[in-house]
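User: I'm putting together notes for a lab meeting next week and I want to include a structural view of one of the chains we've been expressing. I don't have a solved structure, so I'd like a prediction I can at least talk through. The sequence is below, exactly as it appears in our construct file.
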Amino acid sequence: MQMFNHIVMKDGEARIEGKEHFKVEMVVRLYVDGEASIEDVMAHYGLTASEVHAAISYYFDNRAELDSAHQKVLAEIHENAMTIEKFKTKIVARNSGKK
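Assistant: Thanks for the context. Below is the predicted structure for the 99-residue chain, given as structure tokens.
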């Protein structure tokens, strides 16, 4: 593992050192997208200020790559989401097969 001041790379993803179950991406999204304060992120994940700041620094140093990956995930979620229209179509198709 390569280490970057509270950040380690594991399985090709940046994670919090010593707490590798926390991906930098998920920590940062609460701050960047959720508009939570650093203190809120610390409390939510049980991280130190240094760990949260390191995650945020890593994000801003790699913003284009992380945002691109995040947008791909969101697009996949939206593509696979069950809308009311898809649900109705599925019910109609299922019921049309019954006698």
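A couple of points you could mention at the meeting. The helical segments are 24-32, 38-45, 49-61, 63-80, 84-96. The first strand starts at residue 3 and ends at 4.

User: Perfect, that's what I needed.
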